[in-house]
Amino acid sequence: MNRKLPFTLAVIAIAVVGLVIAVLRHLETGAPWTPGVERSVWLVEARVDFVASGEPVTASLSIPENLQHFDIGDERSASPGYGFAIVNDDGDRRIEWTRRDAEGTQSLYYIAQFTPRERPETIEIDREPVAEQVYWSELQRSVAAELLDRARQTSSTPRSLARELVKLMALVDGDQNAALLLAQAESSADLLARLLNDAGVPARRVFALQLEDARRRQPLQRMVEIYEEGEWLLVDAATGEVGVPRNTLLWHRQGRSLLDVVGGRQSRVSFSMIRQSVPATTLARSSRTDSIFYRVGVQSLPIEEQSMFKMLLLLPIGATVVVFMRVLVGVQTAGTFMPVLIALAFLQTSLVPGLLSFVSVVLIGLVMRSYLSRLSLLLVSRIATLIILVIFIISALSIIGYQLGYSTGMTITFFPMIIIAWTIERMSILWEEEGAKEVLVQGGGSLIVAIIAYLLMRVPLVSHLTYNFPELNLVLLAAILAMGQYTGFKLSELRRFRAIQEDID
Amino acid sequence: MKRWVSVPQLRRFGMLGMNSRNVDFIGRYNERRLFPLVDDKLKTKLLTQDHGIATPALRMTVTQQHEIRSVGAKLDSLSGFAIKPSKGSGGKGIWVITGRDGDAYIKSSGARIGIDAIRRHLSDTLAGLYSLGGTPDVAIIEDLIEFDPVFAGYSHEGVPDIRVIVFKGFPVMAMLRLATHASDGKANLHQGAIGVGLAMDAGRCLKAVQFNREVLLHPDTGKPLNSIRIDNWRDLLLLSARCYEMTGLGYIGTDIVLDRTRGPQLLELNARPGLTIQIANGLGLVPRLRHIESLDDRRFRDPAERVDHVMREFAPRKS
């Protein structure tokens, strides 16, 4: 046993180091152990990209002002070489970046923390808004009037008028009047706002951001606000729903443009966001970013990278599950860590659609592969062929799914193509060499391991711990090392060797 | 029989599990760099010739596609031969030609084939059709085994072979593998071949199992299995024991066949031998492996001494 002693000590040391760092981080930053006792905070990052043309640059981005449902805190900007200021331009809050001369591709970041309010705040309206004057062409005017007439008949309030208009605009077989106007309008939100103003209801276009955890490169969505009985109400121009959905952030109200860039071209803005769990105490001192734990934590990275790390930090959980299932339970899997990748893909697609699409892609691939094997191609070209076929299968499934009205068809693209191609190749060789039964055993084993890993990764506590305490992965590492030295029986061997019972009696 | 066996039962039996095999034996006694010696049959073959270990003689190797055209003339001098892919596994791609009939060749199944079929088969082999992972391969053409008539009626189609586990040069456990109709002529236990555990002292049948259950008669021929006894048992163990010096691998499975005239012949080696041999023997490997580990290596430099030691030490206990 002496030979194993240094190893055992090392394993224990790794685990202890991980735990100690985690405890220190907890004491220092107040990061909680469980996701329950904290408030979720949205970190939103707006990224402005443009190509500077070598002249003085002024970029100005509209940013949220008084929000009914969110507190704005800790606004920052990451933009080396630029001066920046937050200015208030007649109720329109904007961030302005300026630089004497810049050339080439530029990326500017505005980062802010949004904390959902416990109860919505009423926003004072200083002067009663009036409906804007709307200018229509001759033809448009008569068509709009007719459309408004129809909507008015079935509505009583500004709110219901908006809903009825949306309904008319969204009719599947198409209201001809609405279709005509829509074709000439910028967007359905734009048209809705014009129609409402025309009807004497004060309405304005707004840009809203859908908050979804760990999303990158999201665009803003056009929506409409209408004025009714002393408050502004948000209307979804696509569904006609009135009121602010929980995770919608009003980013920009009508007024000036969303983004102005002087001295640059091809400007665009995109948004990344991430949900963080922060206890009220940390929230209070979130400006204190000088702590060592903050600086070496994942939280100090740009949000775009953080979203990626949120996924990456879940990988060790999957790896541990694979080791556990293979070494201790004795489940056979096709490819050592393929189950982890499948599990990660499931996180994006959710379980049942992911499972269905994965199984169907692999099955179709196996059928195609059986034709390929008749051509006796070399291995490399066989796999390359399979990759192309897999892309075709996935595109076909996505299109069919979309036509049938399932948007989940699209999510198959999250599966790593090359992994799928290899899976098909291995399964097919297995089929030829060991028969269909072995394919079922190993394929089923892989899926079971993937599902277990997926279920674990989805537990809020698990993702909370791996993300807020990355050092806990050292504990997983220690567990994996320890399992690597396990020389006892696998659970499956208790069944495999059942025949020996006759011999020991 | 219960559906599950408990860990204490397995311990009492001395069963070697897969984790223990991988970590305690393969990991500790088999150096990674030596694996290619046994994974590539051509390398094994050349090594056996250097060490004077009996094996079916290598007649020819085909390494390049262009050599295939002239192969017909070279085969003319052979009456029977076997074609094997060097990196094949599980008996795939092995063709056994038992004789000639004019221009035609006769396969072990009785089918008559022309030289064209052989050329195509060689071409497929070189392209990697039978090798693991489809990597390019080499075809080996070697002498035919004329298998010992003692096995007549014991094997369906395939050649019966004897698997001996050799640990640090000591043969520790042996099993005869008989192909059946269910295993499709293959000597692969999980496909339904019969495993016959052999007593280490004289090569007698201890027990026979098929699909993890004890069988008494061969399911295809009806011959009683418990009357099996291997001739030349000591020579066979000696052959397997010498593979340790040959490869340097501490834990291997040796596959041996008995030739009618030439005696035991080494067919191939396996660096990750399976565990089912323990069920066929009704005995666990662990006590035997521990016994070998406790021995002083310096006392057993000579394979013959090691064989004598195991024949004495591992003889079935009279009960």
CATH names the topology of the largest domain in chain B as: D-amino Acid Aminotransferase, Chain A, domain 1
- Helix percent band of chain B: 25-40%
The class by helix and strand makeup of chain A works out as alpha+beta
User: What's the helix count of chain B?
Assistant: 10
The side-by-side strand order for the widest beta sheet of chain A comes to 3-6-1-13-8
- CATH-level-4 superfamily name of the largest domain in chain B: ATP-grasp fold, B domain
Strand order of the largest sheet of chain B: 11-10-9-8-7-12-13
Count of discrete domains of chain B: 2
Cα(first) to Cα(last) distance of chain A is 32 Å
Pfam family, one (chain B): ATPgrasp_ST
Keywords (chain B): ATP-binding, Ligase, Manganese, Nucleotide-binding
GO biological process, one term (chain B): SOS response
Domain ATP-grasp (chain B): 45-296
What would you say this structure looks like, in words?
The complex is a heterodimer of chains A (505) and B (319). With 505 residues, chain A is of the alpha+beta class. Chain A has a domain at 310-498. Helices cover 47% and strands 22% of the residues of chain A. Chain A has 18 helices and 13 strands. Chain A has helices at residues 5-29, 138-153, 158-170, 176-184, 188-198, 280-284, 292-295, 303-312, 315-329, 338-349, 351-372, 379-403, 417-434, 436-458, 460-468, 473-484, 491-496, 501-504; strands at residues 39-53, 57-62, 70-78, 83-89, 92-99, 103-116, 203-210, 215-218, 221-228, 231-235, 248-253, 259-262, 264-278. In chain A, the strands form three sheets. In chain A, strands 3-6-1-13-8 form a five-stranded antiparallel sheet. In chain A, strands 4-5-2-12 form a four-stranded antiparallel sheet, with no helix packed on it. In chain A, strands 10-9-7-11 form a four-stranded antiparallel sheet, covered by helices on one side. The longest helix of chain A is centred in the N-terminal third of the chain and has 25 residues, at 5-29. The two termini of chain A are 32 Å apart. By secondary structure, chain B is α+β, with helices and mostly antiparallel strands. Chain B has helices spanning 7-13, 18-29, 35-39, 41-51, 71-75, 115-127, 233-247, 277-281, 286-294, 303-313, and strands at 58-62, 81-85, 95-101, 104-107, 112-113, 139-143, 161-167, 170-178, 194-198, 205-210, 213-214, 251-259, 263-270. In chain B, a hairpin with a 2-residue loop joins strand 10 (205-210) and strand 11. In chain B, helix 7 (233-247) crosses helix 10 (303-313). The chains are: A alpha+beta (505), B alpha+beta (319). At the A-B interface, helix 17 and helix 18 of A face helix 1, helix 2 and strand 11 of B.
